[in-house]
Structure formats: structure tokens, C-alpha cells
Amino acid sequence: MTDIPEIAAFVAFLAKERNDSPHTVKAYERDVQDFAAFCDRYYGGAWRWAGVDRLAIRGWLGAMQQRGLAKRSVARALSALRTFYRFLNATAGVEVNPARAMRSPKLPRLLPAHLDRSEIERLFADAAQRAARGGFPAVRDLAMLELFYSSGVRLSELAGLNDEDVDLVSDQAKVRGKGKKERLVPIGRHARRALRHYYRHRDALAVAGTADRRAVFVNRRGRRLAIKRLFTGLARGRELHVHSLRHSFATHLLDAGADLRAVQELLGHASLSTTQVYTHTSVERLKRVYHQAHPRA
């Protein structure tokens, strides 16, 4: 934990008010601390947040590049500093934001990794086989997989689900996203069946009084948890991560003709431009189909 009060307050704001993921909070804290350490060296004495100028930030960006940090890491650090100064403006009356006018490194637009239909079928078939053999972890993992892909939620939203958030009668769940914004997401029939099967196993933990009765997904000790290894059975498992299911959810909906605005609502994106990256994924797939199928492509 930082000993700089402004940064400590900023970290608390990110975690408790903005409801950012622990990964984001830790990264932003590390970035702003790194900037503060740079300013100690740059100014060689006492300095104030309100007195930082663009030259200091330019020097900081250059120092990160000299250390060999990737452009994406530098861009995230600059974004963290901009957010920090907006926080200082709102809470401490710091009127300047020297990071606002700084240009971020130009980044290549990367398409999110997603699973094609055959990989999805293989993934769920393997998970179903493991669950059929019994055992609490396998049954739980299948339910998490089904709900994750069925709803397209973020990992933090899935891990934060409580029993009262999930309604298997109306087939929907209430999730709390970034900024504590709530939205309703659908639960498909496969996810509903897997959840009911999982609940029977989970409730056995409550008999001994070990389960957290609020959390939907728990480990053997009844503690809340999130998905870890899922893709080891797939040929390109190392290329994938848990959010690949969220990306697959969006891509497959758009492939099937879903409205972009509807997908935006389901994903909980504040900006439509964030959702539009999935249209590029779909276009790339269509191009491949075209070149494979058209006789004069």
C-alpha cells in the first residue's frame, strides 16, 4: 500500500466507487506511484501535483520507453495519470491536468481472441464429461462456463454474483459492472440446467456450515472464487484466457445478426465504439468464408 495519501485515496476510489477490477486498480496504482518516483528524481526536491508540467510527463514517458516498456503499457500508464488528475480535480481542487494534452503512443488495433463454434463445442463437451464423473469442482466449473458464455459477463461480474442476483425462473441475472452500474443479462437453458445441478452440490457444503450463502460460486471451503484454467483441452489453449468466452459471446451474436446496440447493452459497454471491435472480428471471419467459398474470390 502506498504511503502517499493522494494515491491511497485514488486507489480506494477506483476499488470502491468505480468498482474497477483488482487487476486495473493494481496497475493504476503502480503507474501513478512510478510517476511520483520519477518526479522525485526529476525535480530533485519538494514538488506538488499542481505544479507538474508537461515536460515532466514527457520525460516520464521517455523513461518508460527507455526501460523497454511496450507501447500498450505506456499508453495505460498515461491513461492512469489522466484519471488520477481528474480525481485530484474532483477531490482536491487541483485545476490542472498536464497529462490531458499528452498524446498516447499509437497502438495497433488487436482483435480480441475468441473461440470458433467447433472450439466452443469441444470446450463444453470436455467440461460436461468431467462434470458427469462427479466431484464438486467439475460440476461448478461447468456451471461457471455455461453462465459465462450464456451471459457474456466480465470475470469480475461473474465472481461477484450473489444468490439473490440469479433468477432461474425468469432466466436472468443482475450483475454490477464498472462504476457499480447494474444490468440484467440472460441465462440460457444449458446454463440454467448446469446451475441447478451445481446448486445441489454447493448446498451440501452448507450442511457443515462452511459455505458462503451469499456467493453463487465458491470453492471447497465455501469461499468466493473465479475461473482459472479452462482451455487446457484446446489446441490453442495457451492463446486463450477467461475473457475469450466473453469475446466469443459477442462475436457469435453479431455473426448471427444481432443488433450492435443490443450487444453493447448485454456487454455493459458505456461506449458503442468499444463494442464495434467485434464487428471487425466478424468481418474478418466473413472475408475468410468468402475467399474459401467464392469461385472467383
Enumerate the strands of the largest sheet in spatial order, edge to edge or round the barrel. Answer: 1-2-3
Rounded to the nearest angstrom, the distance between the terminal CA atoms is 58 Å
Biggest sheet character: 3 strands, antiparallel
Give Rg in angstroms: 23 Å
User: Per the principal axes of the C-alpha atoms, what is the gross shape?
Assistant: globular
Number of strands: 3
Report mean pLDDT, rounded to a whole number.
Answer: 84
Multimer state? single chain
Q: Estimate what percentage of residues fall within beta strands.
A: under 5%
As residue ranges, the low-confidence spans are: none
Order of helices and strands: HHHHHHHEEEHHHHH
Summarize the structure.
With 297 residues, the chain is mostly helical.
Description:
The chain is mostly helical and 297 residues long. The protein has helices at residues 5-17, 22-43, 54-66, 71-91, 117-132, 136-151, 155-159, 189-207, 243-255, 260-267, 272-275, 277-293; strands at residues 166-167, 172-176, 182-186. Strands 1-2-3 form a 3-stranded antiparallel sheet, with no helix packed on it. Strand 2 and strand 3 form a beta hairpin. Helix 2 (22-43) crosses helix 3. It is globular and about 65 Å long. The mean pLDDT is 84.
